[in-house]
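Bumping my old thread because nobody answered last time. Still need a sequence for this structure:
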């Protein structure tokens, strides 16, 4: 919701979308580092799960899927309000180009 005001500044589309994507990228990367450093770097799960018949590839795949789902939902939550505001302000052309870049 905080990136919506950047849609209404008076400049070209490229500057607006670049600024919005830079803010969203910074927020997503900061959230990923803060939330998943304990998940990706924690070695305590090895002591528990490696005694079970779980392959290392399965464990890494589960971590990767969990991370991807979280990042997709977080990026959608941060970018969707700006996309909707752009749809209302500039029409379907801006929304489709914003969604394709997103």
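Sorry it took so long. Here it is:
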């Amino acid at each position: 919701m905080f990136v919506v005001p950047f849609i209404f500044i008076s400049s070209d589309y490229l500057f607006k979308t670049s600024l919005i994507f830079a803010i969203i990228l910074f927020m997503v990367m900061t959230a990923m580092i803060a939330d998943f450093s304990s998940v990706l770097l924690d070695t305590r799960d090895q002591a528990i799960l490696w005694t079970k018949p779980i392959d290392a590839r399965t464990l890494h795949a589960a971590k990767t899927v969990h991370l991807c789902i979280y990042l997709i939902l977080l990026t959608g939550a941060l970018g969707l309000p700006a996309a909707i505001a752009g749809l209302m302000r500039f029409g379907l052309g801006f929304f489709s180009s914003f969604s394709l870049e997103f």
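Helices lie at 13-41, 44-49, 56-90, 92-101. Let me know if any region looks off to you.
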